Amino acid sequence: MYTGWGFSSCPFEPEALRADAIGHQLLVGRDIETRKVMTRLNASKKLVTLDGSNGIGKTSLVNIALYRCYLAYLKSPANRLFIPCRTVFQLDNIDDLVAFQKHVLSEVALTLSERKQELDALETGMPGAAVLNSILDLNLLGEWRLAISGSNSLNTTHIEQTNSNTLATSHFESGFKNWLADIFSGQHKGAVVCVLDNLELLQTSKRARQCLESLRDTLFSVKGIRWVLCGANNIILSVASTPRLAGHLESPIEVTPLTKNCTEHIFSSRRQAYQVAEGAGYLPLTSAEFDLLYTVLNQNLRTTLSKCHDYCIWTYENSLRPRNDDEKKTVFAKWLTKEAQDNEKACSSAVKQKAFEVFDLTAMAEELRDSFSLSQFQSFGFDSVNTLRPLVKELEDAGLLISQIDEDDNRRKTISVTPKGWLVNYSRILSGKTAIRK
To answer: Which of the two ends of the chain, N or C, has the fewest CB atoms closer than 10 A to its terminal CB?
Structure first.
């Protein structure tokens, strides 16, 4: 479909931007946040942290900030060498942190290998390969083979994966850590920078604290590896106060939704990046429809991109090809209205009027629509948590709200409207069942 329209691939890919030239081109409206990440990496050895709602673009801006750090070194080796790790990591449990550590070290090793050619050209002459050679002589790699030829420098290292995605032995891990410390010392101070994403998947602040405390003296202390932590629902603030982490985490960089004046730039930059020839790409929507969808979905960029792809599929499967801007506006409005109404119809029998009143207020009220907690029951006109809780559960079962209960930190606002919920809200606005948000 997209190749037939003159694109190399889908221009609405919702995955996080990669730390490369294309990602650099596609990042829009995040100059302030990327500068903050770069400044904090250079300023101290503390863990850089970011907090913002899901789908807002935290991982993308971190990846591009790291890529810009790397470009700065390529332009002038007087800058610190920060190399973005090729993999973004996340934890949804803390049961096997040892395996997680092995996985991280393996990805760091492969990252260095992939950057070999660029670093070769700099003739940096980094030390460290001799340490790795001694490990090879002991034949301790098991499922991994690491071959080094020529001089004792990073730019002669070649890493080859055979079957496993984790490093095989503790002997190698110890030697590899020493090697990293040797590489990123002296004039080459810096690190491979890893991103630990979606900390909110650990669900409670207690579990997140346990995880980060366990990693503090293992992965977080490895010389030559730096970390950036991303989370939602104020999880970063919840874990930062623990004594074992105090002083190890930078204050969170708050990531807020992109302003509406960025949507046209986002749309045009993606169109330009993926079209095979200048001006050749056809799309059944314009930046105006992209902006409308971004507004309807409460400024969630990831969901907006995903829904744009859904719309393109719908037009293609229904043999619709609107040509001018007016036709595109009409066809898109028809699809969006149907999409919203279908979602409302699907949950109408399961959600009673009282629960819909809670939902409408959640979507409309400034202090509630991003997220709220059960402790805010008075904002809904109730006199207790127990009155609000079953209505939230009803909305959650219908897929309109999502909640993560954190019994360890009641300050965290962990209940929010889902993408489906925002479509239902739009349907209710169109039908006059709820007031339009100001």
So the answer is: C
State the fold for domain 353-430.
Answer: Arc Repressor Mutant, subunit A (1.10.10)
| Cβ(23)–Cβ(273) below 8 Å | no
Burial class of residue 216, CB neighbours in 10 A (0-12, 13-18, 19+): middle
Paired strand residues for 195: 88, 228
Query: How far is residue 422's CA from residue 294's CA, in Å, rounded to a whole number?
Result: 11
Q: Could you count the other beta carbons within 10 Å of the beta carbon of residue 69? A: 23
Q: Label residue 387 exposed, middle or buried (CB < 10 Å: 0-12, 13-18, 19+).
A: middle
The values of phi and psi at residue 350, to 5°, are: -95, -15
CATH fold of 30-254 reads Rossmann fold (3.40.50)
Which residue ranges make up each domain of the chain? Answer: 30-254, 261-342, 353-430
Query: Six-digit token pair at 122?
Result: 């700099």
Q: Show pLDDT as tens, one digit a residue, over the chain (438 residues).
A: 999 999 999 999 999 999 999 999 999 999 999 999 999 999 988 999 999 988 899 999 999 999 999 999 888 878 888 999 999 999 876 668 888 888 898 888 888 877 766 666 555 544 444 434 443 333 333 344 343 333 334 433 334 443 343 444 556 677 778 878 877 876 557 899 999 999 888 877 788 888 898 899 889 999 999 999 999 878 888 887 778 887 889 999 999 999 878 999 999 999 999 999 887 799 999 999 999 999 999 999 999 999 999 999 999 999 999 999 999 999 999 999 999 999 999 999 999 999 999 999 999 998 888 889 898 999 999 999 999 999 999 999 999 999 876 666 655 668 999 999 999 999 999 999 885 543
